[in-house]
Specification:
three-stranded mixed β-sheet, L-arginine/glycine Amidinotransferase, Chain A, Agmatine deiminase, alpha/beta, globular, 204 residues, 15% strand, 5 helices
Length: 204
């Protein structure tokens, strides 16, 4: 996560946590787990996120043969033992990943591999895609969530998110596979803009 907050050291994040200023931080230890085959060097938005203070959505699979299972179980163990900055135990909601998705020959051929520098993950046919419904965007009154063409888990993701965000309309974006081909998903390519408080001073 350090590439997203380069001004913060590990000690700096710990200080912010213990100060109580950021009540949504998960304990002094964030989960070290990332989604299986993730190519964002461990950005948390493919693995878990808060739906509200004290409630965490966790990317999950029930398939014990899936390599993602071990990572999800490790993250669940860590989060189950964690408290937020106000000392509250976390409620954890499991959000199942879609069935394993793999890059096709056609999709790999559509990537200009020569443009990928030495730090990027090669886009090769047969590569498992790091598809996760946790990688959604929260808008005013709405949740924008990826859909991957999985008849079982696409609908389940909308159902779980609708329960987690009862006052929001959950909108599924079809063909989000096109985004994950390049790495990440909807949350990765968007950025929330905080509302300006109504009592904020007007700018000259």
């Amino acid at each position: 996560m350090w590439d997203r907050v380069p001004a913060f050291s590990g000690d700096g994040i710990g200080s912010a946590y213990t100060s109580g200023r950021y009540s949504s931080l998960v304990g002094p230890y964030l989960s070290p787990c990332s989604a299986r085959d993730d190519d964002t060097n461990g950005h948390i938005d493919n693995m878990c996120c808060f739906s509200k203070p004290g409630v965490v959505l966790l990317s999950w699979t029930d398939d014990e043969t899936d390599p993602q299972y071990e990572r999800s179980v490790e993250a669940l163990t860590i989060l189950s033992d964690a408290t937020d900055a106000r000392g509250r135990k976390l409620q954890i909601i499991k959000l199942h990943v879609p069935g394993p998705l793999y890059m096709t020959e056609e999709e790999a051929a559509g990537v200009n591999q020569a443009s990928i520098d030495g730090e990027a993950k090669p886009r090769l046919a047969g590569t498992r895609l790091a598809a996760s419904y946790v990688n959604f965007y929260i808008a005013n009154g709405g949740i924008i969530t990826p859909q991957f063409g999985d008849k079982k888990w696409d609908g389940e993701a909308v159902r779980v998110l609708s329960q987690a965000f009862p006052n929001y309309e959950v909108v599924g974006i079809e063909r989000a596979r096109e985004i994950v081909l390049g790495g990440g998903n909807i949350h990765c390519i968007t950025q929330q803009q905080p509302a300006i408080p109504t009592n904020a001073a007007k700018l000259d």
